[in-house]
């Protein structure tokens, strides 16, 4: 029996070795006319995938990239998620990636299966069409209209989930807030069922984005697909009601929610997306927005707990803004524009713990970069955030120092929202949402981290392993901000 098992194991290893040898020889022969970047494709269909995922989930992804760059240089070949891939890193790579029309944004097979035909997974002319619609919906003039709605969601959330509590676990709590905000904007008045019932499903879907797209029971991908189906069904029901309502209105112009906005654009001939496509894009917008912003708010709270001087400056700024409006009035676009120091804190948080560590693209034709060839159809993965912690570009990169953003960062070295024409269309919305939420949290509370040694992992967004539990207490509000007599104790 033992002999049979040993013989089987030996045969399996021999077969694997032969397959890998044939795999490498195939690529070497097929691309013999190309000067491919250094590196290797590894085990067929697997390559470096598990190695990268382990690094992400153990919070060593930055070191993983640096080790690879040290070994092969800023341009290297590998295989990720079943596709031959070229890794690019550095400012020149960021410039090349975000300004090159021969590279189309693409995503993993898992993401395409999970969110369907959304902006997160479309390519080519369809991507340009949907991206244009999203940019129109999330442009500053439109976001101005959402500030009051965001303010209402934040105040309601804080009253329900923070006031009267002596402890809070930040990440899951802030996830509910972020989901409530983006759902109210994307889905409108009928978003209540999504906000209350599907927060866990959105988290499950998000965790499945970086997984192998093999639908085996109890795997991340399988759970993600089940969550996706549940979310899609709920949003489809809302979309059908919205479509029927708009059909009954002559010359409908109500575009206060994303689904109505897209349906109206379709009626005007601006696009030809089906209702199913619009639902997929509503899903993609929610998925893309709520995890990233909740991660940013969570880590801002973590940093401010250990930086009393920075918290003091933030508090003074926010108290002064509040002093110049009635307490009952919602924050406005102009108020958010005055939150300059707090936005620097947010930018420094995004530099040190970027919600997105890289992105995938696909070559539409053979291209050349720094003397190497990247064949048509290959994936290009840019580790865009590696520059964030490079001392060549940021002095003392491990130090949390918001004042470094009093001057502009070196070109293509600071990339939390991408860059150039491919900058994230939701960056203004994310800024408003974060500033409004932090305004009320900073003014009302002081907190202390329960577990100072708590680490975080990428799953795929940065995630504190315990969810960041904090001890919480109300802050005595200042009576005279101009005289600087407010209580700024950090508890």
From TrEMBL:
Keywords: Heme, Iron, Membrane, Metal-binding, Monooxygenase, Oxidoreductase, Transmembrane, Transmembrane helix
InterPro entries in the record: Cyt_P450, Cyt_P450_CS, Cyt_P450_E_grp-I, Cyt_P450_sf
The protein's name in its UniProt record: Cytochrome P450 716B1
Any one of the GO BP annotations: sterol metabolic process
Chain positions recorded as heme binding sites: 424
Pathway where this protein functions: Hormone biosynthesis; Plant hormone biosynthesis
Gene Ontology terms, MF aspect: heme binding; iron ion binding; monooxygenase activity; oxidoreductase activity, acting on paired donors, with incorporation or reduction of molecular oxygen
One Pfam family cited in the UniProt record for this chain: p450
């Amino acid at each position: 029996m033992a002999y049979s098992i040993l013989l089987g194991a030996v045969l399996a290893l021999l077969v694997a070795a032969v397959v890998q040898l044939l795999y490498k020889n195939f690529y070497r022969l097929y691309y013999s006319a190309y000067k491919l970047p250094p590196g290797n494709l590894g085990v067929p269909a697997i390559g470096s995938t598990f190695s990268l995922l382990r690094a992400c989930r153990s919070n060593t992804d930055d070191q993983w990239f640096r080790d690879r760059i040290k070994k092969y240089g800023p341009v290297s070949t590998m295989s990720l998620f079943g596709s031959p891939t070229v890794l690019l890193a550095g400012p020149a790579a960021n410039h090349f990636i975000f300004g090159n029309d021969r590279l189309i944004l693409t995503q993993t097979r898992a993401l395409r299966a999970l969110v369907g035909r959304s902006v997160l997974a479309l390519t080519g002319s369809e991507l340009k069409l949907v991206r244009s619609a999203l940019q129109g919906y999330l442009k500053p003039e439109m976001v101005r209209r959402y500030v009051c709605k965001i303010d209402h969601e934040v105040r309601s959330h804080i009253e329900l989930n923070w006031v009267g509590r002596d402890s809070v676990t930040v990440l899951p709590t802030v996830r509910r807030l972020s989901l409530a905000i983006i759902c109210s904007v994307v889905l409108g008045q009928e978003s209540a069922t999504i906000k209350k019932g599907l927060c866990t499903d959105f988290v499950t879907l998000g965790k499945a984005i970086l997984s192998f797209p093999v639908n085996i029971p109890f795997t991340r991908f399988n759970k993600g697909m089940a969550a996706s189906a549940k979310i899609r069904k709920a949003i489809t029901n809302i979309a059908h009601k919205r479509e029927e309502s708009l059909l009954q209105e002559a010359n409908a112009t109500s575009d206060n929610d994303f689904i109505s906005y897209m349906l109206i654009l379709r009626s005007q001939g601006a696009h030809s997306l089906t209702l199913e496509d619009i639902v997929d894009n509503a899903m993609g917008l929610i998925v893309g927005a709520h995890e990233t912003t909740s991660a940013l708010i969570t880590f801002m709270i973590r940093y401010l707990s250990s930086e009393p001087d920075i918290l003091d400056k933030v508090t003074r700024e926010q108290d002064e803004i509040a002093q110049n409006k009635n307490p009952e009035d919602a924050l406005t676009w102009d108020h958010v524009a005055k939150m300059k120091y707090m936005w620097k804190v947010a930018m420094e948080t995004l530099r040190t713990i970027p919600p997105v560590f890289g992105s995938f693209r696909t070559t539409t034709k053979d291209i050349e970069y720094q003397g190497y060839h990247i064949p048509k159809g290959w994936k290009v993965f840019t580790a865009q955030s590696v520059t964030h912690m490079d001392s060549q570009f940021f002095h003392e990169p491990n130090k949390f120092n918001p004042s470094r953003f009093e001057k502009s960062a070196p070109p293509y070295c600071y990339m939390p929202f991408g860059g150039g024409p491919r900058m994230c269309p939701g960056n203004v919305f994310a800024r408003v949402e974060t500033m409004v939420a932090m305004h009320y949290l900073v003014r009302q509370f002081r907190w202390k981290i329960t577990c100072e040694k708590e680490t975080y992992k990428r799953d795929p967004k940065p995630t504190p392993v315990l969810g960041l539990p904090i001890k919480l207490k109300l802050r005595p509000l200042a009576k005279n901000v101009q005289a600087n007599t407010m209580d700024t104790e950090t508890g």
